Amino acid sequence: MRSHFLLAMIGTFAVIVGAQTQEGFISLNCGLPVDESPYDDSFNGLTFTSDSAFIQTGKSSRVDKSLNKILGKQYLTLRYFPEGRRNCYSLDVKSGTNYLIAVSSVYGNYDGLNRDPKFDIYIGPNKWLSMDLEGRQNGTKEEIIHKARSNSLDICLHKTGETFPIISAIEIRPLRNNTYVTKSGALKLSFRVYLNNTAGFIRYADDVRDRIWFPFFGSSYAQITTDLNINNSNAYEVPKSALRSAATPKNTSGPLVITWTPRPSNAQVYLYMHFAEIQALEANETREFDVILKGNFNHSGFRPTKLKVFTLFTEEPMQCDSRGCHLELVRTPKSTLPPLINALEAYAVIEFPQVETSISD
Ligand SMILES: *[C@@H]1O[C@H](CO)[C@@H](O)[C@H](O)[C@H]1NC(C)=O
Ligand SMILES: *[C@@H]1O[C@H](CO)[C@@H](O)[C@H](O)[C@H]1NC(C)=O
Ligand SMILES: *[C@@H]1O[C@H](CO)[C@@H](O)[C@H](O)[C@H]1NC(C)=O
Ligand SMILES: *[C@@H]1O[C@H](CO)[C@@H](O)[C@H](O)[C@H]1NC(C)=O
Ligand SMILES: *[C@@H]1O[C@H](CO)[C@@H](O)[C@H](O)[C@H]1NC(C)=O
Ligand SMILES: *[C@@H]1O[C@H](CO)[C@@H](O)[C@H](O)[C@H]1NC(C)=O
Ligand SMILES: *[C@@H]1O[C@H](CO)[C@@H](O)[C@H](O)[C@H]1NC(C)=O
């Protein structure tokens, strides 16, 4: 399974009317002229501001006009860094809070040179990723879950070759403290999906934390859905729209299998599985299954709660074998129904060994 972020305006989500709380959200449209800031995104209602208050360096530009109709507004302007090897944003956060941090870069031939940039992105002193925009006509979005270690978060772009680093958007969302807790390190998203055979993705305001959920469906799955309200109140706050459908195996006596390859293949993996019973069970019916991650995790006799989410997750990091990760939901002999799953998220650990210190410390 592969998660692919499309910055293009595809999807079937609705225009949001009316305000939802965006408390603690930082939504920067990089390179946006100050006199156009702030604005509410017409698609999802998120309030974007210019990045100019958070960085003193770099220059603003715009992507090629041909992308105006394809990309969301936050990706049409950008900031590029012709000077210096390292340029940093300094953002106000709360020390000890876990944040979902996303950066997007769309080259859009802003300089007319048709030369896709390559550069690195750091969080403070620690390398987060290498950004290579070759062949990424619509840009790319990278995200990580990271606990702030001081009240300032530095996102830094490092020049690594001939091309100038660029950035289009920075989106930071506080998460609940008791969620996505790791033994050490930050979490890089492998995928976050809800089991539905449609094409639309889900994010804010359906997801109050503004996580993006892509639909995923395997050819050996059958779908069940409900129109009933599902109680999603646990710490993970999975959007209700992501829970209203679920996959079961087409072969009702067989297991439901989900496999993926973490990168790197020996990565430490964390998995979050969200279940809710969305079928009306008769008094003589039972849905019970074992949740097995070969060699790592075995939760036996699990029964999804009626119209209420339950999140099963790995408290210890797991390591999958050389063939990848293999999740199996196996019907128990007691069960009269096949296993189901509504949504799941997988992450790989990135260690950030260098101590973050800000100048004011
Ligand atoms: C998380 O913990 C930090 C520091 O302990 C605290 O300031 C913050 O309010 C907490 N956030 C939530 C959502 O509980
Ligand atoms: C970019 O997005 C457009 C519109 O969604 C799509 O037609 C095109 O194939 C995408 N290009 C790439 C390289 O993914
Ligand atoms: C999930 O699938 C059902 C049936 O195909 C569809 O009606 C529903 O809108 C889908 N859910 C989302 C969030 O797209
Ligand atoms: C949802 O579940 C929570 C926790 O079990 C409970 O406190 C709350 O009352 C439920 N909400 C509804 C609308 O049933
Ligand atoms: C369905 O699954 C059961 C149990 O794994 C297996 O014995 C059977 O051969 C499968 N049937 C089909 C048609 O694949
Ligand atoms: C449950 O009961 C209904 C009617 O009472 C019956 O038709 C059905 O076959 C039973 N299902 C199972 C799994 O025993
Ligand atoms: C999972 O645990 C159950 C109950 O302890 C056991 O019956 C089953 O064989 C285990 N499965 C695996 C693959 O370890």
Automatic annotation (TrEMBL):
The keyword Signal applies. Pfam families: Malectin_like. Residues 28-349 form the Malectin-like domain. It is found in: Membrane. It is a single-pass membrane protein. It comes from the Eukaryota. Residues 1-19 form the signal peptide. The keyword Transmembrane helix applies. GO terms for cellular component: membrane. Keywords: Membrane, Signal, Transmembrane, Transmembrane helix. This is Malectin-like domain-containing protein. The lineage of its organism: Eukaryota, Viridiplantae, Streptophyta, Embryophyta, Tracheophyta.
